Amino acid sequence: MSARRDEEQELLWDAVEELIQYDKLKAQAVLKAAIERLFIQLNMSTTLISDLHLSIQNEESIQAIRCLDNEIRKKTVEYISEPSYETILNYIEKISEMTENPQVIYKKIVASIWIEEKNQPHYIMERKPAYLHEIEENDENSTAGENKKKFYTTSEAANKLGLSDQTIRRMCERGKFKRVYRSEGGHWRIPEDNFVTTREQDNKANTILGHLDRKNQEADDVDEFNLS
């Protein structure tokens, strides 16, 4: 992973640790974004994270997951080795421990990653699916702008996940996203439900990260975090 992506991931974890003190719901949303981001960078896919309720008990539990996140990124600079997979399993176990039924959730996350990997399609749908035409043409309650918001462009997805536009296009070609299609101009469109966080949550997270970044530039240590 690039130094820039590592820096952005660390900023996400900084935001989680700061938000624990003020708003655990926001902390949970940013935590899910950090988890999703790591899985995407590992070229692993699971839609289960978005449905989990992660109970953040204390800073120690977050620190444990953050340390594993950091260790995984260091071990998987070029490829995923057997020791790396063991660390990834430990990472998933720690995530599961934040749910009401850790053993069941642990198995479900591992199984979902395995299923997504095994069931990748051998082709990509090039034409826009019929249901998309129906949404755009027949939904009288939606404006064109609202319909567009239901999908991400490759550049928007790249910015959201901290990856390059080229990487996102390759992921589309390899079937890493569900129900992707090409527009009439040949551009990829990615349904928003492929991602854990919504646009609104992303905007809030970006505001928080921007605040933290400015704080870090002003001083080495941030003693207070103002959400107002």
UniProtKB/TrEMBL annotation:
<dbReference type="Pfam" id="PF12728">
    <property type="entry name" value="HTH_17"/>
</dbReference>
<dbReference type="InterPro" id="IPR009061">
    <property type="entry name" value="DNA-bd_dom_put_sf"/>
</dbReference>
<protein>
    <submittedName>
        <fullName>Helix-turn-helix domain-containing protein</fullName>
    </submittedName>
</protein>
<feature type="compositionally biased region" description="Acidic residues">
    <location>
        <begin position="219"/>
        <end position="228"/>
    </location>
</feature>
<dbReference type="InterPro" id="IPR010093">
    <property type="entry name" value="SinI_DNA-bd"/>
</dbReference>
<dbReference type="InterPro" id="IPR041657">
    <property type="entry name" value="HTH_17"/>
</dbReference>
<feature type="region of interest" description="Disordered">
    <location>
        <begin position="208"/>
        <end position="228"/>
    </location>
</feature>
<feature type="domain" description="Helix-turn-helix">
    <location>
        <begin position="151"/>
        <end position="195"/>
    </location>
</feature>
